[in-house]
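Support request, priority: normal
Reporter: lab tech (M.K.)
Component: structure prediction queue

Hi team, I submitted a job for Stage II sporulation protein M from Amantichitinum ursilacus yesterday, and the status page still shows it as pending. I've pasted the exact input below so you can check whether something in the sequence is tripping the parser. The sequence length should be 321 residues. Please let me know if I need to resubmit or if it's stuck on your end.
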Amino acid sequence: MKQHSFEAQYEPQWQALQRALQARPRALDNQQLPVLYRAVCQHLALARQRQYSPALQDRLNDLVLRGHQALYGTRLRARGTFARYLLITIPRTVRQQWRLVLAAALLFYGLAGALTWLVAFKPDLATAFSSPAQLTKMAEMYDPSATHWGRARESAQDLVMFGFYISHNITIAFQCFAGGLFAGVGSLFYLGFNAMQLGVVAGYLIQMGYGRPFWFFVATHSALEINGLILAAAAGLRLGLALIMPGRLPRAEALRQQAAPAATLIAAAALMTFGAAFFEAFWSSRVDLPTAVRFGMAGTLWTLVPLWLALGGRWSAPDAD
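Reply from support: The job had stalled in the queue. We restarted it manually and it finished. Here are the results:
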């Protein structure tokens, strides 16, 4: 094919790609951009193979370079934006809301720790919080002779349990968050209720002699699940305070202004509960893991999570408004 025929046949596609690149960022949502980019890549290869004029090759090469940057450079920037959000924005927001996070943490760990100690020494107290049937079920779940620890498996597929744990964890986190709309009382209630459940179960299993499999099960994923739950409750409390203490602002405006930090906290909680579900399904329930490996992973997570929240973004440029 002669060069002039080649140009006449494909000029409309080249101009279409040129217009798409000039129209960014709207063009990035155009489904035709990848199609045009691949077509021009083929045209450039043909132009080089047929030794068309250097001017034509340079033009097509320029379009290909710009198209590559528009498609893949944007994807890299998107990944960079998510990494910044995860490593910088989330920890900064947690530190900005440290009073609410600390209050939620003290409530959860204080209540769970107190009930663990009380029930371990006075097991009869367990029936004041849970029915005998529930306590028996918990004992079966953490029987040292069980093939899996945690919830009973009707299916041997860990992937099934992964889906269950995601649903279960996110439901609890959402309750702690949405409860904030009831002047923050709902967030405190759901957080305290889950702390109570953990403490009662832990104390009951300890006095039965089942403490080892219980702690083996919860040690790793709890670093993400519990702290994610605390962040969800802090997000709910942020909204609750905006409703009951709006200052001089109308409540709707106060709620709007606090929506951004609350959204960041609940996003962090969602990511952490998702990670917790992964460990809970594929790692925590396994009985064949060596003790050193299991607690090595647990120690790693319990170290990294506080470090992430305490140090993330401290030496980076401030986020743009």
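The chain has a mean pLDDT of 87. Residues 3-82 form one domain. Let us know if anything else looks off. Ticket resolved.
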